Structure of C2 domain-containing protein:
Amino acid sequence: MASNLPLLLLGFCYVGLAESQLKLFDLRASNLPSNLLGTTDGYVKVFCGATTLGTTSIRPDNANPWWKEEFSYFKAQENEVLRLEVYDSDVIFDDLLGVCQRQLKMGTHEHDCYLDKGGTLHYTYTIG
Ligand SMILES: [Ca+2]
């Protein structure tokens, strides 16, 4: 009897968490601002809840960059917050251009997010 307990608990945990797979892709930005140091060298940091999913590559000197990177997360949950931080890479310190936050909803969703310092971030995610 006692030997069956761990398996039983595992089963309960699995059902209780209701985890889903998140896929984030098609990250593009347009009209990123330029500063004294030149055109923006953009990159994006991706978070889901408290978990860091990764960082895109830097697209140097490009006000309208796109990123081929895709981000997957197997432990996503509906209503968790997807957070995208857009930066301009610089020599001394990187400028935060804007933050996009959104609660995950089941299905496939495409969004445009207006960045505080100018420009727009476009992204698509699927969860289910
Ligand atoms: Ca720069």
